[in-house]
Amino acid sequence: MASLALGVLMLAGISIQIGSHVWDISSSLIVYLIVAAIVGFLAELIVGWKLPFGIIGAIIVGLIGVWLVTQVIVINGIPDFTIDSVPIIHAIIGALILVALWHLITYPFWRTRRRTRYYR
Fold this sequence. Notes:
disordered N terminus, mainly alpha, two-stranded antiparallel ribbon, 4 helices
């Protein structure tokens, strides 16, 4: 019975009103965030560079990656499949671009220099 109530609650969504702002949390938003987290982790694995803030950083990179490749840099000609209106291949490409840029920008700061001089 509890799972049925949870299913009905998630289908209807939750609305939170703070002042004049109304935020809607629905099942599609939750699916969007889960897909963004998976895409962010895949981009980290492919590039081989970890992002700060763990899962939150992966979700942010996934969300910005989806937005980047679907709204800013439109790539046509790549066959894509969607999960709840999230284009997966485009999201992975956008997240890869962002993780690679993060790596290029922050690598000089994280690289440690080793001294090869040995004193006897």
